[in-house]
Amino acid sequence: MGDEKDSQDDSVFTQLSEAVATNPDDPSARFNLGLFLWDRTGEESKQKAAEHFVIAAKLNPQDANAFRYLGHYYSKVSIDTQRALKCYQRALALSPQDSESGESLCDLLDKEGKESLEVAVCREASGKSPRAFWAFRRLGFLQVHQKKWPEAVQSLQQAIRGYPTSADLWEALGLAYQRLSMFTAAIKSYGRAIELEESRVFSLVESGYVFLMLGSHRKVILTHM
Asked: How many helices (H) and strands (E) does the chain have?
C-alpha cells in the first residue's frame, strides 16, 4: 500500500515539476509544486517548497496564498519571526478573510505580548471585510479581556454569524451582556452556549446567578437540576 502511494506521489511530483519546467513564469505552477513539497515530511522539502513560494509571490504579488505559506515557513521551519509577521501581514492585506494567516499572525503577536498590535490587526481586517469573522472573534475575546463590554458585544455578534455553533463565543457574549446589565440577552446567550455544550460550567453558574438577581428562584432550581 505504501509503495503504491509512493508511486502516485512520484507521478504527481513529476507532473508538477514538468509544469514548472514548461512554464517557469507561471505563478500557479510554482505554487502547486511548492504546496506538494510542503505537504511532504522533512525540513529539506519545506525549504524547497519555500523557494517555489518565493518565486510564486514575486511572479504574482497579489496571491495571498503564497504569502501565507511563506509565513508558515518562517514561523515554523526557519524561525524568523519578523519575516513571518511581514508575510502574514501581506497575506491579510490581500485577503482579510484569510483566517489561517490572521490567527497565525495574532498568535505570534500574542506570544510577544503585543496585545495592542493584535487589536490593530483585527480592527484593520474586520474594517476591510464584514466576512473576516476570525478577526471579529479574536477582537471580541480581546475586548472581553479588556472589559470593553459594548465593543465586545458588537464584535462577538458579528463573529457568531461566521461561527454560529461556537459555545465559547456565545458564553463570552453572555458575559458582555451581563456586565452591561442586559440580563435577558445574557440568559439567552448563556442558554445557547449550554445547548451547544452541556458541560459549560461558567454559563450554568452565571445564568443561575442572573436568574437569582432577577428574582426567578424557580428558574434557578430548574437550571441547576
From this structure: 13, 0
Q: Is the dihedral of CA 44, 46, 52, 55 positive or negative?
A: negative
Cβ(125)–Cβ(102) below 8 Å: yes
Cβ atoms 167, 196 nearer than 8 A: yes
Global model pTM greater than 0.85: yes
User: Considering only CA atoms, which of 205, 208, 144, 146 is closest in space to residue 177?
Assistant: 144
Is residue 177 very low, low, confident or very high in pLDDT (cuts 50, 70, 90)?
A: very high
Contact yes or no for 84/67 (Cβ under 8 A): no
Domain boundaries along the sequence of the chain: 140-225
Rg of the chain taking only CA atoms, in angstroms: 23
Indicate the class that CATH gives domain 140-225. Answer: mainly alpha
Q: What is the DSSP string of 106-173?
A: HHHHHHTT-HHHHHHHHHHHHHH-TT-HHHHHHHHHHHHHTT-HHHHHHHHHHHHHH-TT-HHHHHHH
Query: Which contiguous run of DSSP H or E holds residue 66?
Result: helix 64-72
Establish how many alpha carbons lie within 13 A of residue 148's alpha carbon, considering only the half-sphere containing its beta carbon: 12
Amino acid letter for position 25: D
30-43: pLDDT as tens digits:
999 999 999 988 88
Alpha-carbon gap, residue 208 to 190, rounded angstroms: 10
Query: Phi/psi of residue 176, each to 5°?
Result: -60, -45
